[in-house]
Known about the structure:
By secondary structure, the protein is of the alpha/beta class. It has two domains: 66-224, 3-Layer(aba) Sandwich (Aspartate Aminotransferase, domain 2), CATH 3.40.640.10; 259-386, Aspartate Aminotransferase, domain 1 (Alpha-Beta Complex). Helices cover 37% and strands 15% of the residues. It has helices at residues 12-17, 60-73, 85-94, 110-122, 135-141, 165-174, 187-190, 227-239, 245-255, 258-276, 296-302, 319-328, 349-352, 372-386, and strands spanning 78-82, 101-105, 126-130, 147-153, 178-182, 200-204, 218-222, 282-286, 310-315, 333-334, 344-347, 362-366. The strands form two sheets. The protein has a seven-stranded mixed β-sheet, sandwiched between helices. A five-stranded mixed β-sheet has the order 8-9-12-11-10. The longest helix has 19 residues, at 258-276. The N and C termini lie far apart (65 Å). The structure holds pyridoxal-5'-phosphate. Residues 84-86, 109, 112, 153, 157, 182, 184-185, 204, 206-207, 216, 218, 338 line the site of pyridoxal-5'-phosphate. Its EC number is 2.5.1.48. One of its GO terms (molecular function) is cystathionine gamma-synthase activity. It comes from Methylobacterium persicinum. It holds the Pfam family Cys_Met_Meta_PP.
Amino acid sequence: MQDDISPVDFSCRSLAAQAMGRIDPVTRAVVMPLHVATTFIRDPDNGYSSGYSYARPDNATVREAEAVIAMLEGAQAGAMLFGSGMAAATAVFGALEPGDHVVAGTVMYWALKRWLRTEMPRRGITVDFVATDDLDALRAAIRPGQTKLVWIETPGNPLWTVTDIAAAAEIARSAGARLAVDSTAASPFHTRPLDLGADIVMHSATKILNGHSDVVAGVLAAAKADGFWERIAGIRAGSGGILGPFEAYLLMRSLRTFHLRAAAQSAGAMRLALALRGHPHVARILYPGLDDDPGYAVAARQMRDGFGFMLSIRVAGGEAAAIGTAARVRLWKRATSLGGVESLIEHRASVEGPDSPCPPDLLRLSTGIEDPVDLYRDLDAALRGAHGD
Length: 389
Ligand SMILES: *Cc1c(COP(=O)(O)O)cnc(C)c1O
């Protein structure tokens, strides 16, 4: 039989490479067709035997990509794709009730933090931000009976602090709360939060899952199909947050090479971090793969096959030298976002504003698939230029 490859028999890498081995039953094509229809024929008996009726709640091409991501995350309840990472994340918070309490990390995606600060009070939901890499601080922030959600991001953007997922899951569970993990920077290549006890994992699929800087998408995957997950599905269907079929098709195309890209990008990041150690113009490297990083011990436990494609450096000459370095690179691209095959550099404090934990001398580096030797030489020349060497 060529139509099905069993998830039991083969690894994630093999299953993703073949997009779950699905074959189009009509043409026998090895690539599934792109479904763009917004509406579907009703059966004479008034039912919808195909399972599809209208494209806002559901789409067959979106389901293909969701199946691959659910497999990568080991998500028993499946995955749901959204029009952006923010749409996915905000759907989780949207499923909470007035009066609920949330604990979230101080180091997290800045636009989501800003959204939580403005939108959650309007819905009668209180959010406390704590350093979730400090488990005592996390434990102390929980209000038993009232805290319904713990939201962590690990490694956390843009300082790449590491939170112990298994410990956070235990703290959340013992208080009757759910744990959701923004795992965008780790990706399922390095970490599977659901295996470690998390209830929901979220990704900006705009980043390394798609990896080609040409799709904005977000995804949630869940361990359990409970009432909370159903409510999130209702929010996606009702608010029209589903990903478009063209984007889902592009995302699935990218997922076929996900393992190759993630391996190359994390190996490149590690080489850069090691090469930058001791650089005269780098005051500090923030990368959980370095054995003197405060997050190393936990990262070594919960990340496998490397530590991800993201690192930051603090430039010795301060903010002006950091901006000057970003101004001088040629191979690195001076742009926001992360996870693409092209390497990006960004002066993050310029984006995040005054209430961010990001220091002004920090440059965020997203490692692509270029030759790491070229990436180092380009960055080294820019650092030297910015310091007047
Ligand atoms: C980019 C990003 C988001 C938001 O995703 P969008 O796809 O831009 O909406 C959330 N979390 C992290 C860690 C991100 O990097």
